[in-house]
């Protein structure tokens, strides 16, 4: 398993805690393990994303098989409440 870091922005119309639980659920459903979860809080966006001018930032460190990371990216992309996300390898 490789370690990854996911940073994502949740639309303010959704509950960040619920979306965080969904993200953790995606990771565990794929056989991964959450190392650390951190809610950074609501911040104004540098530019509009769709109609959103602010969002709730969160970071999750997790481990997952590299074969399953593509499927995880698809699940994150299909969630309409997550307006931006970035997955990097965490060392």
From TrEMBL:
GO cellular component: cytoplasm; ribonucleoprotein complex; ribosome
Listed GO biological process terms: translation
Coiled coil location: none
Superkingdom: Bacteria
Alphabetically ordered keywords of this record: Ribonucleoprotein, Ribosomal protein, RNA-binding, rRNA-binding
GO molecular function (one): small ribosomal subunit rRNA binding
SUPFAM superfamilies hit by this protein: Ribosomal protein S6
Family to which this protein belongs: Belongs to the bacterial ribosomal protein bS6 family.
Task performed by this protein: Binds together with bS18 to 16S ribosomal RNA.
Name of the featured protein: Small ribosomal subunit protein bS6
Native source species: candidate division WWE3 bacterium CG08_land_8_20_14_0_20_40_13
